[in-house]
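Long-time lurker. I teach an intro course on protein structure, and each term I like to show students one example going from raw sequence to a predicted 3D structure in token notation. This year I'd like something fresh instead of my usual example. Would anyone be willing to generate the tokens for the chain below so I can use it in lecture? Attribution to the forum is fine with me.
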Amino acid sequence: MAEVQADYSLLLDMLRDGAARVGMLEREARSALYADKDTGRHRALMEQRAQTLIDLESKAADLLDALPDAERRKTRSALRAFADGARTALDLGSVFYMSALLYRDNHKEGEPDKLQALVDDLETRLR
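-- Reply from a regular --
Happy to contribute to a lecture. Here you go:
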């Protein structure tokens, strides 16, 4: 049981780190755009943010096996959706799409994005 719990911890740590990186890149991109008026840097940071979402899916792949079946399917599906959206946004070169990847249509400032909500939900369910 301790080994499985350790695997949960590894997965949660990796997802927390990924969510923190995504948030940091988003804040830096926002600052580049609004404070510095640097659209090139904004684009580059948003591309890094999208790539981080793609990377999370592959980094989590082996760690997901430790989860109970339903949790594994739900988490894998969410990470795949984030990565697929990020790939599409990069293929299109759409900074707008890159910025909207993790937000619901009715998202309110201060609410967690979909990735952070996934992490929070997993932490709650795996305790």
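Some talking points for your students: The chain has a mean pLDDT of 92. The longest helix spans residues 2-34.
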